[in-house]
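Chapter summary example.
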Amino acid sequence: MSIPEVKSIKFLVQTDQALGLVPSLTATTAVAEALAKFLDVRGILLGYIDGFILRDLEEHAPRESWQTVCDEAIRVYLEVSKPGLLNEDCCVRNFQVRKNANDDSYEVFQIDFALCYERNPEQSDESWILEKCEQDDEGAIGTVMQCRLKGGYVYTPTKTYWVYRGLTKEKEQQLEEWRQKRAEEEEAKKNEAEEKKL
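The structure predicted for these 198 residues follows.
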């Protein structure tokens, strides 16, 4: 486990922002200062989550649950990143999904914070928001799952950070047209592949 990941998990636990959204912090490790230069292997022990990664949703959950589970993954990401974390590796393999024992619902947890960085306290709001927009973590979840689930999930961006970038109605419409065209192309490829099989 990397040093940034240890710091990120500790940061999240201290802020209580991610309570129930990330694995529970069970323990941390450290080596006596005298031995640190020889044995500097820092780490944390996180609670085990019996489930599957979001990327494999199609294999483990019924189609009628896909929309809810993917929307929940985006909600979890937005909650976890609120306290000022930038995740440079936010992707569908970094979310663990667990089926509830009591009903047919699913819980989603964000895992793997190795490439997370805390916001610099001296960084301006504008600069921070620009970083978050350019990273587009939300899109890394929603767009990928929409493509993977081929019609079983429709990604609708929350535009959490877009509003700060001054995304105009015209640009928003262009983006929506591009997404629609891309979805249609994907559907045409899928149909073509199925016709070739016949």
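To summarize the output: The longest strand covers residues 25-29.
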